[in-house]
Amino acid sequence: MYKDSIRKLKIVIIGFYYGKFPDWMPYWLKSCADNPSVDFIIVTDIDMGNLPDNVKKIDISFDKLQIMFKKKLKMEISLDKPYKLCDYRPLYGILLDDYIKSYDYWGHCDFDLVWGNIKGMAEKYHIERYDKFLPLGHLSLYRNTDKVNGYYRLNGSKCGDYKTVLSKSDNFAFDETDGIYSIYEYNNLPMFKKRIFAEIKTFHKRFRLKTCDRNYKHQVFYYANGKVFRAYNLAGGGTKVEEYIYIHFRRKLPADKKRNWQDIQEFYITPEGFFDKKPGIPSLDEMEKYNHNPGAVKEFFETVYFCLKNITKVKSKIQNEIVALKGRR
Question: What is the pTM of this model?
């Protein structure tokens, strides 16, 4: 009975995009098409051509979008650049209510990812128990009720209340841990936080999961039969395979942007782009070919280089947190 109710749940995932679509867009669309029980809405003014049946485009310019948001929120807002849309993500339930009324859950998403079996993983981890399913900005699903859609107004945000966030041009990452996540934590609201996604670390050339997840000497990520997997070699021998709801690769990857999403089947997701894959579990040789491990020493120096290169960004983030803290006093 419970599984039947999950299968009947209507889920829609929303993404905004202005500028130029990434080269890997056919792979993103392929993974959407293989989730026929989930709908996707893309808000953009870019010509998208042929789309899967479950992907709908809302054609609106960025200028008109700003007017629409002001009208919906009935307040003065700052929305000068598309990247600022990240701060508006937790409000999509209100901002796009005319388009999502029939859905039980709505979500916001990134485009630098490939979807796995969304409904299957939601069923496995009992989405109906939670008002917010998944913790981060690249995908969060929210129960589509007036009450839940208004939670962004509650106290608890570490980056400032929503009026402060929406009225300033700074990027506060209100869709992330210091924003809507901290509101749910502060108010003890039902939220599913387990890391069932593959979030790739940006420090290294090869694909490694973030520090809070375990990595292996030999591992590779791939897409097969509508699902996202990591295969890795065990120290004592043998191979294990783990499934994820999506992989967030967090970098620009080369791809043939003219490739038809309908022609794509199984593929490896690698630091060098996307490569067709034969059916079956990857071998150790394939793990090394498609996700080469340069060794611990080189990866240590990759980390050092990354930290030195981004020290200015770290200082800027600390300054923003200080400003936000003063604003809450």
Answer: 0.90
